[in-house]
Amino acid sequence: MAVYTTINIQSIFRDDTFYAYEIFFRIFNIISLAAMTTFLKDESNEQIMSHVANVLRILLLQMQTIAEEISFKKDDLINQEPIIQVLLEYVHMNLFEIGNDIQQRLIEILEFIGTLVDNTILVSQLLDVDFVSLILKWIEMSELPFCIQRASVRLLYNIARHEKGCEALNQADAMNVLKEFKQRILDPTGNNTTYEDMRLLFSMTAALLAEPKESKIDVKSLGKVLDQLMQLTVYTTRKTKITNMAISISIENHPFL
Description:
The chain is mainly α. The chain has one domain: Leucine-rich Repeat Variant (Alpha Horseshoe). About 65% of the residues lie in helices and about 5% in strands. The protein contains 13 helices and two strands, in the order αααααααααααααββ. It has a two-stranded antiparallel sheet. A hairpin with a 2-residue loop joins strand 1 (about 240-245) and strand 2. Helix 4 packs parallel to helix 6 (about 100-120), helix 8 packs across helix 9 and helix 9 (about 145-160) packs across helix 10 (about 165-170). The longest helix is centred in the N-terminal third of the chain and has 22 residues, at about 45-65. The chain is globular. It starts with 8 loop residues before the first helix and ends in a 7-residue tail after the last strand. InterPro entries: ARM-like (IPR011989), ARM-type_fold (IPR016024). Keywords: Membrane, Transmembrane, Transmembrane helix.
């Protein structure tokens, strides 16, 4: 008689964080191999591109899962900066590709980068790959796909949560870029619930970036933000940190609360 069992991979990593840490960086090394970087630089043989793309997707999704169980250290990404740069440049090269597969791939890359940025201890090191300027360039583009807009604003919020990230964004004039983005994208879609989470992210990012003397509170907008945050805080009876839409919110330190 055949016996079947289910293995919970997540629980394995949760129970052995040292093993999770080791596997995470082994996968990073695989992504850094020549076959992967050649694909990401759009130099692969067309016959193998789809296979490499599928492998990349599996690896990125696995790394996101593992990263949830790891306590990162400040300099953990020092050897991974080149491949992170290649991943970001791949997104940049393919922003306006319309195929579903490639759009999904871009989102998976940005979600993976978002997982790294979500760990604020890694932000100062990630700034070395100059992804702030890339993200700001993206949201300045008028025809940027919605999914990339949303992922980009999420990244900006998580960058702004870190003191050095906030400083880098202000040096890059992020506030003015965000204001222009609000006028061009968010204001005309005020009644569109599809943009609800993006408006929340925009408001929180702007609050983190603004100097106190520059802050001007829009009571109506702030009310909507607080309503959404209140919905999120329902879950804090079980957790001191919640993650939703790739946003991490430390309730006790949040500028709105």
